[in-house]
Design goal:
Keywords: Heme, Iron, Membrane, Metal-binding, Transmembrane, Transmembrane helix
Radius of gyration: 29 Å
Bound molecules: protoporphyrin IX containing FE
CATH class of the largest domain: Alpha Beta
Strand content: 5-15%
CATH topology of the largest domain: Flavocytochrome B2, Chain A, domain 1
Shape: rod-shaped
Number of domains: 2
Largest sheet: 5 strands, mixed
Order of helices and strands: EHEEEHHHEH
Helix content: 40-55%
Organism: Musa acuminata subsp. malaccensis
Number of strands: 5
Subcellular location: Membrane
Main location: membrane
Number of helices: 5
Distance between the termini: 97 Å
Protein name: (wild Malaysian banana) hypothetical protein
CATH architecture of the largest domain: Roll
CATH superfamily of the largest domain: Cytochrome b5-like heme/steroid binding domain
Length: 135
């Protein structure tokens, strides 16, 4: 059995075949090669989840029982490098758009539009009243 170690997502993505299949679920790496044929949900779903990158979402969506969760322990071989709970390591960007904090607007962001409005109003006021009054 392989030593318990840390694997990068690119290393994990090299093991997606029937003869060599790894899964990354909740930050842990599982070698499920010997389990493929015995998986009650079939081997295809596991192979597909393995090839798609992080299998956390697929695993959770099925609503696996606690029996399934305890079975996993016998296949764990390591952890996913740089895994942060709640963030999928295979995400193209570390934070997706929804997860990014909302942009904060500073006072100067409002100042420029206000200034433009003020100048426009001053110009309109001058042209409408002041220049007519002079004529
Ligand atoms: C080490 C990883 C996994 C283990 C140990 C495991 C184990 C099990 C077990 C024991 C069941 C029987 C039902 C239950 O007890 O929940 C099951 C069902 C199932 N699993 Fe997994 N599973 C693993 C990964 C996955 C992944 C990555 C998928 C991807 C979608 C998946 C999809 C399914 C499906 C579709 C079923 C059938 C559910 C049903 O018929 O209601 N499993 N799995």
């Amino acid at each position: 059995m392989q030593a318990f170690q840390t694997y990068s997502p690119s290393e994990i993505s090299l093991h997606t075949t029937k003869k060599d299949c790894w899964l990354s679920i909740h930050g842990k790496v599982y070698d499920v090669t010997t389990f493929l044929e015995d998986h009650p949900g079939g081997e295809d779903v596991i192979l597909h989840a393995s090839a798609s990158g992080d299998a956390t979402q697929a695993f959770d969506d099925v609503g696996h029982s606690s029996t399934a969760t305890s079975m996993m322990e016998s296949y764990v071989i390591g952890t996913v490098e740089g895994y942060v709970s709640g963030i999928k390591p295979t995400s193209r960007h570390w934070l997706s758009k929804q997860e990014q904090p909302p942009p904060s607007y500073s006072f100067t962001d409002y100042l420029l539009p206000l200034l433009v409005l003020g100048i426009a109003f001053a110009a309109w006021y001058y042209l409408t009243f002041y220049s007519k009054a002079k004529a």
